[in-house]
Amino acid sequence: MNITGQSLIGGVSVQGTGAPFFAFDPTLGAALEPAFHTVDAQQIDGACMVAQASFDAYRALSGARRAAFLDAIGEQILALGDALIVRAMAESGLPRARLEGERGRTVGQLKLFADLLREGSWVDARIDCALPLRQPPRPDLRMRLIGLGPVAVFGASNFPLAFSVAGGDTAAALAAGCPVVVKAHPFHPGTSEMVGRAIQLAVRQCDLPAGVFGLLTGTGNALGAELVRHPAIQAVGFTGSRQGGLALMAIAAARPQPIPVYAEMSSINPVFLLPQALAARAETMAAGLTQSLTMGVGQFCTNPGLVLGIQGADFERFCDAAAQALGEAPAGVMLSPAIAANYGRGLAHLAGNAEVRALARAQEAPADGRGQPALFRSSAAAFLLDARLSEEVFGPAALLVACRDLAQMREIAENLEGQLTATLQMDEGDLAAAAELLPVLERKVGRILANGFPTGVEVATAMVHGGPFPATSDGRSSSVGTAAIQRFLRPVAYQNLAPALLPPELRDDNPDGIWRRRDAVLGRT
């Protein structure tokens, strides 16, 4: 498939009118052909309006037809073959194995949503039959969930496949019956175009309205702001910085019709080393931390950036082992020079704090966009006094904090911002300590792990990838797993509607045999 540098609007290729820009190979330090162009306001309007015009026809399709569409997208992505991986490697600096796994995850989550659509319970169909003899009489009431409308999706810098053009936000929105307009991330525009054209082929293959999917390319903030302001857009999916997420939230809230923004923004993912586990396996946990911290050059939203333990000989063993392991780790190519520069500023901020001590730096990193893994240490008292120490450093860096006792560890947990994850490293003798921390962590995070590390997010029905603000803009939601569909749905009730007008999910004969709640009883009737 040839990459043209064009956007995709209404089923056709469109050349943006803005100044040219190029993808960048962070490994070679070179620009990549072809040139891309930022779309203008009229082209953004065209993509949004054709999405709006396609909405009613698309949401009226059966779950089975939308499922077939999601399956077709997965097939078309696989049909791109090795060319997709090669381009993504060039644009991101990520290794082949990582991107092949990410492609599998992308296709897998499309299949997961397709299975959900065929099963049907996502509709949350509810029927309260009429009670004409009751005083006062009860009307016939039926409820289902329907899509919100066109959704704007922002591709993520650190996942060129799984959180981008055909990633989780797009899959969930399309499953919900919502057309999608994607803003391609400028770090991987070629990868985005390839995947966008695969979706475009699936739209045609499944004979769907052309506006079901659109792809817009460009640089700068104006494109995203214009997209979120457009009255046709009814929700936003975003993965990126806190600054970017807050800006989109402000734009969405200031519209004449405010809309929800589901933004995943920042997290330091605390790891709690409980005393018995620390005494039994300090060195093993240190090795696990280093592996998790340096995976993907630390460019994961679930990277373990904060580690807490009780001061003493066992914590010293852990710190020594972690410093030794991390000092042997190589510097790695980061996604872009801009991300590498931001990471360097984050390290300088930590190193410049008088209450923070540098424990280890990996191999010296040349000034070529590489990220140098780093480990720092502070006391719990210093951490509690300086809110800046709890800020995310996006990259392979972690701060180890020595706590006086379990009470001080809990105090830190109470003072943390909302997080995507928290991890309890614990043994049998730590159950009481874990039980003390658990209620706090349930208020603070979206996923609580035991004896693991948070990097690696399973695409599954029970996964939660979200958390209280500022980890996400709405802690009631998840951007991974089948629960992600709920972000793009809303309830509609039908009172005394003629049977011929009811959607299939609410008809008495239940033609698709889905699970429904009828007069408060869950079943297939």
How would you describe the overall organization of this protein?
By secondary structure, the protein is α/β, with parallel strands linked by helices. The strands form six sheets. It has a seven-stranded mixed β-sheet, sandwiched between helices. It has a five-stranded mixed β-sheet with strand order 21-6-5-22-23, with no helix packed on it. β17, α12 and β18 form a beta-alpha-beta unit. It is globular and about 75 Å long. The model has no long low-confidence stretch (mean pLDDT 96).
**Which structural category do the helix and sheet elements fall into?**
alpha/beta
Major pleated sheet: 7 strands, mixed
Radius of gyration: 25 Å
Please report the total strand number as a whole number: 23
Oligomeric state of the chains?
A: single chain
| Termini gap | 48 Å
Name the poorly predicted regions.
Answer: none
Strand order of the largest sheet: 15-17-18-13-12-19-20
Shape by Cα distribution: globular
| Percent in helix | 25-40%
Count of discrete alpha- or pi-helical segments spanning 4 or more residues: 14
Strand content: 15-25%
- If you average the pLDDT, what whole number results? 96
